[in-house]
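Reader question, answered in our methods column.
A reader sent in the components of a multi-part assembly and asked whether the whole thing could be modeled at once rather than chain by chain. We filled in our standard form and ran it. Here is what they sent:
COMPLEX SIZE: two components
ENTRIES:
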Amino acid sequence: MSREYVLHKVRTALGRTAGQAVADPPPARLRVTEMDSETRVATLLQKVEALAGKTRRVAGPVEACAYVRSVLGARSAVASNAPFLRECGIAGLAGVQSGFMEAAPLRVLCATADVGITSADYALADTGTLVMLSSPREARMISLLPPVHIAVVPRDRVLTGLDELLTILPDPAAQTSSTVLITGPSRTADIEQILVRGVHGPGEIHVVVVG
Amino acid sequence: MSAAFDEKIHDTLADANLQLAIYAATGRLIDHRKQAVGGAALPDYQELRTQANALKKHTIDHLDHYLEQFEAHLAAHGGKVVYCKDAAEVADFVLGLAKERRAGLIVKSKSMTTEEIDLNERLAHHQLESVETDLGEYILQLAHQRPYHIVAPALHLTRYEVGDLFARTLGVANETVVEKQTLIARAVLRQKFLAADIGISGANFLVADSGAVVLVENEGNARLTTSAPRIHIAVAGIEKLIPRAQDLAVFLKLLGRSATGQALTVYTSFLSGPRRADEIDGPEEFYVVLLDNGRTKLLAHREHRQSLYCIRCGACLNHCPVYRKIGGHSFPWVYSGPIGAIITPQFLGVGHEPGLPFASSLCGACAEVCPVKIDIPKILLDLRAEVKKSEEREGKGRLERWAFRLWAWVMCHPRIYEMAAMAASGMAPGEDGRWLRRVPAIWNLAPVRAWLSRRDLPPAPARSFREMWRKR
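And here is the structure of the entire assembly that came back:
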């Protein structure tokens, strides 16, 4: 539509010409703090709890599966295609449906399921954050539509924070159309600033760190 | 000052409940921010502000370069940039696309830019339904109101008003428990998300080196808006660019903390292009509308272009003693508070509301809390000068100019000043603060009275400083 018009106005306003060279921007400012693995996991769990999320540290896949089963009870669930969930045996639990590669049936199921189960590509300790990259293993809807979200994360994916994430993933768009950081349960305070959880996304979130 | 501005201010000041609501809400946001940036919570807060300012300055000064870079990277990921010069072009684009794709329903996540161009109204005019999905914005859409605050759009409404509104517009029982009201909205909007063909979002940042739109939110409605419908359109001002994804390490740390005191908001989405071939879900089409709508005009001013650094955190509103009294709806445009007071005159011209740059005590709190260090008081002063210059051109404000010339002359002549001061204190009955009511008729002349109606003159002391000095 108005591409040339707008770009021309921008250049005129700045006194620049098309294709004129640009000096480098100020160097990126990334500060990755040193934190051993145990501290990272402990910090992550503490931060998630502070956001009213639920947490569990388990020794291995078997315990992870047992915990998820106990949270599920008789409720229905959708699990992502993350290989780690299969390794833990979570994708095969009773009441859990998994293996969806098509958007339409997955969405119908996510809209009615009680619980969505995913892994996470990374977790950020200092903010209590899950990092979800959209891929054949992780669909967008599973961590979004069901009222409860359980994320089962191997401990080696727990990073110190945002700066470390952006150091190892300088351009998330190179590998996925969607990178989402999830920090606690969905919330709103739009009416009289009263905090209510679970307005559009899951109001209940469980972070399970394995190992 | 226009009569409308004056009237809205006085209405707000006279509403005790509203005064309390504004004061409590902004006070809470002030506390939250303070806890999140102060001391050990964020030791390098000041360095982050300096870096954010330097990054924004660099990007805005070379904006054409970053716009083209963004466009190229987004195209590489299958997305498309649409440049629009004004509101009508954005509406035309959305309407044209909706018609071509036979789209009937639009869901929207919160965006000040779409408020700025009245997008919902423009689409509704062509029978295209566009539903706001942020809880606060949804309430305002039902009530046909504008946002009261950049971050807390419905802070002026009580749960009782929301209960009445839902009962009246949605046909549900009048519910005054906030949790239940939230569930009502969730249920209605969930159906809209699943039925919508197009999702329209704003953008908190546009990342040049990856062609990505970054959205921050707490509810999850922006995720649904950008992931459930088959078409996603992000509408953003051209100033939203930042050079690199890595710069988010600076901006995300500042935005959530300055706005609500959160280290990160619940959801931060980093979106580039439609769903990739191997991904399971996500939109099939992805557009980014880059809007001018007056921004290039502002860009031409070397000093004032820093107004475009704003990341819309709302901290300047919360900390502004004027905003905290007159509220958001007194402001003449969608942008309120100190940032509104500097961008409204620059977008719409100083004549749009000549009183606006004067609605400030110039205390500097806004500049102190601004995460990107915009020198708001300096720009307000410049805009005041512009208003006065334009009034002079139109031959307005002669009396005031003469009065100030006289004042300046008196101030330069100590003897005359002393006599004038004596006369003034002679008229003052004492320090009871009721001085103006008892003074002779000259102060009660219409123009003088109007000028004084918004200014407090302290009562004159019984003895002047000069007198005390002589008798020391």
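What stands out: Chain A has one domain: 31-210. The longest strand of chain A covers residues 148-154.
Send us your own complexes using the same form.
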